[in-house]
Structures are given as structure tokens and as C-alpha cells.
Design a protein that fits this description.
Strand order of the largest sheet: 1-2
Distance between the termini: 54 Å
Shape: globular
Length: 241
């Protein structure tokens, strides 16, 4: 199968070194593979957690291990290139402005309509809150972004041709669907919205660290303003109920 260098205009990851020729058969294989990874795997994890009562992190290990192994072993991908690609100050300003406006709106809504939830976690459980703030980026954000942005755009980005918007929207939907294991509507639909934002950011910058920072900010907001109960209920990581 022929390989081509990652050309401008081709949707791919920051660590993509070259792209494979998309023959009709290979396209079908990729579509089936994408369905298995981003639909079949979340359903399997959901069953393992809720039916077999496995801890969520244990259930996720095989899926994450396979995806990371595929990235490292892929000759068309460079993990070093992915993790050393930076971003400009304009991107940072954009991330902060979007977060200030959107995050401010979320914080105002919780404080106004659910004042009992607002700042409940840091106020009542400061030590646990501190641990979560320190561990969440490394244990959750890094993995999610490697799976849903790096792997997705490297492996399947070229399938969408110039229809970047379709890849971005689909990525957001699949990111939300991946949170069905949590068992709350807000977790699914909330992560669909933020996942679309992260996908757009990654498509524009191809920077892992740009989406890492943005994802970390929004995750920290969820824990801080009192919405964490909807993102972890039923999984057994943390419980506010």
C-alpha cells in the first residue's frame, strides 16, 4: 500500500508522518474499525462496569492499551512529533476566551439555579478535591485526548477529505457516546458539546497540548462548580450521593 506525506489540507494528527492510500477496500476497513473502537468498545466497557461490576479503570485498560500500542507501532505516526508540537499565543488566547465565556456561563447557571451544589466539592472535601485536580490531567485527560483526538484524526481523518466539519461533529458525538459508562445524560451530552470543541481545536492546531490544556480547564470547572456528581455517578470513582 502506497504512503504519502501528510499534505496540507488533509485532516490528520500532529504526529502523522504520512498517510496511506485510501482504496475502497481500505476505506471500508477503516469505517468498520472506527465503529468497533468508538461504538463497540464503549458498549463493552459499559457492560463490564454495570453488569460485571468491574472498576471502570480496569475495564478500560485493554482498550486503551491496544490503541496506544497501535500508535506506537504505526510507521506512519510519530509519538515524539505528536508530543512536541506546540501552538501559538493566539491559540492560547482563544482557549482562554472561550473558557471564560462558556465556563463563566456554566458557573453562573450552577450558582444561580443550584446554589447548594456550587463549590460544594472544594469547600467540603478540599483534600480529595486537590488530589483530583492534580491527578485528573495525567490520568484522564492525557488518555482521552490520545484516544479521541490523536488516534481518531491520525487513523480516520483522511476518510473525510475536505469535509472537516463532518469529522469534527462525528468526533464530538463519539466522544459523548464514550461516556455512556457514567450513566447520566449530562455526562453524555455535555461531553458531546465539549468534545466537538476539542475536535475543532485539534483539527485547527493539530496540537495535543492545546487540547490537553482546554480539556483540563473544562474538566476542572466541572469538579469545581458542583457538576462532578453527574460525571461520575454510577462509576464508583467519586460519589456525592
Amino acid at each position: 500500500m502506497q504512503r504519502r506525506g501528510a499534505a496540507e489540507g488533509v485532516l490528520c494528527a500532529g504526529g502523522t508522518v504520512s498517510t496511506r492510500e485510501l482504496t475502497p477496500v481500505f476505506c471500508i476497513i477503516l469505517v468498520i474499525e472506527m465503529a468497533v473502537v468508538y461504538v463497540g468498545a464503549p458498549l463493552a466497557v459499559h457492560m463490564a462496569v454495570h453488569d460485571l461490576r468491574l472498576p471502570v479503570f480496569i475495564a478500560l485498560v485493554p482498550v486503551l492499551g491496544i490503541i496506544l500500542l497501535c500508535l506506537v507501532a504505526d510507521p506512519t505516526f510519530s509519538l515524539r512529533r505528536e508530543l512536541t508540537r506546540g501552538f501559538g499565543w493566539r491559540t492560547l488566547v482563544s482557549i482562554l476566551v472561550v473558557f471564560a465565556v462558556g465556563g463563566g456561563g456554566v458557573a453562573f447557571y450552577v450558582a444561580h439555579y443550584h446554589p447548594g451544589w456550587f463549590l460544594e466539592f472544594p469547600r467540603n472535601r478540599p483534600q480529595t478535591y486537590t488530589r483530583v485536580m492534580l491527578l485528573y490531567p495525567a490520568m484522564s485527560v492525557v488518555v482521552q485526548e490520545l484516544v479521541y483526538r490523536t488516534f481518531f484524526f491520525h487513523r480516520y481523518g483522511a476518510l473525510f477529505g475536505r469535509a472537516w466539519w463532518l469529522a469534527i461533529i462525528l468526533n464530538g458525538i463519539l466522544f459523548g457516546f464514550g461516556h455512556i459508562v457514567i450513566g447520566t445524560d449530562l455526562a453524555v451530552y455535555g461531553t458531546m458539546a465539549t468534545g466537538t470543541l476539542f475536535a475543532l481545536r485539534y483539527a485547527l492546531t493539530r496540537s495535543f497540548w492545546a487540547v490537553f490544556i482546554e480539556h483540563t480547564l473544562w474538566g476542572a470547572l466541572v469538579f469545581t462548580v458542583g457538576l462532578g456528581r453527574f460525571f461520575f455517578a454510577g462509576v464508583g470513582i467519586l460519589s456525592w450521593r
